[in-house]
Amino acid sequence: MEPTNGEYIVVKAKDQGVQVIGLTRGQDTKFHHTEKLDKNEILICQFTDHTSAIKIRGKAVVMTKYGTMETDQ
User: Fold this and answer.
1) What's the CA gap between 45 and 62, in Å, rounded?
2) Which residues make Cβ contacts (< 8 Å) with residue 68, sequence separation at least 6?
3) How many Cα atoms occupy the beta-carbon half-sphere of 18 within 13 Å?
4) Which of 1, 10, 46, 72 has its CA 20 to 30 Å from the CA of residue 16?
5) 2 pLDDT exceeds 60?
6) Residue 58 vs residues 11, 20, 49, 52, 55: alpha-carbon distances, Å
7) Nearest to 48 by CA among 71, 16, 18, 25
8) Which DSSP state fits 69?
9) What letters, b where the CB count within 10 A reaches 16 and e where it falls short, cover 56-69?
10) Which domains are present in the chain?
11) What is the C-alpha to C-alpha distance for residues 24 and 72, in angstroms, rounded to an integer?
12) Which residues contact 9 (CB under 8 A, 6 or more apart)?
């Protein structure tokens, strides 16, 4: 199996119940994984052969190699 060298993002929950949802690649985009974070929890996410997008619901800070941003909720 070849290692995946996709980019990473870091999500830090600012409130209870922040959802981080992985979306698939391919013709049909589907949810394939969901995590729920408690306040101040951190999740490190990686884009892979199966994950083409990451959706975040709730108040969070998102850190990438391109910079840091916050959700507006």
Assistant:
1) 10
2) 61, 62
3) 25
4) 46
5) no
6) 11, 9, 26, 20, 10
7) 25
8) E
9) bebbbbbeeeeeee
10) 8-63 (2.60.40.50)
11) 25
12) 44, 45, 54, 62, 63, 64
Q: How confident is the model at residue 1 (pLDDT cuts 50, 70, 90)?
A: very low
E strand or H helix at 45: strand 42-46
Distances (CA, A) of 2 to 20, 37, 48, 49, 66: 26, 30, 11, 11, 26
| Tokens standing for residue 61 | 């800070």
Closest CA to 66 of 8, 20, 23, 4: 8
Cα 25 versus chain centre, distance: 15
